Amino acid sequence: MQKKIYIKKGDIVFVNSGNDKGKKGRVLMVNRDKYKAIVEGVNIISKHTKPNAKYPEGGIIKEEAPIHISNLNVICPETGVPTRIGRKLNSNGKLVRYSKKSKNQQEIK
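Structure (tokenized):
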């Protein structure tokens, strides 16, 4: 059984641990199978490539590598602080995400 993932593409997240601890960035992609996410400007690696159609000169290319979701916290848009995420049914019967710190009932976008 797979764990629930509360982070979505486009969220602004805070890095809790690792070499990039304390950095913030936007989620570019979430890999649900491996429980990882790619965050803009976080976990940058150097990749050596041969010349190809995309990179005609080849060389060393800097790009973001996946980071485990347990090392990320969503930043509450209302308060601007890292928070845990809860899910509950709203009055329309739709599941919405909310900030557990600020108890903001509105959907986190």
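Strands lie at 12-15, 24-31, 36-39, 44-49, 59-64, 67-68, 72-75, 82-83, 85-89, 95-99. The chain is about 0% helix and 40% strand.
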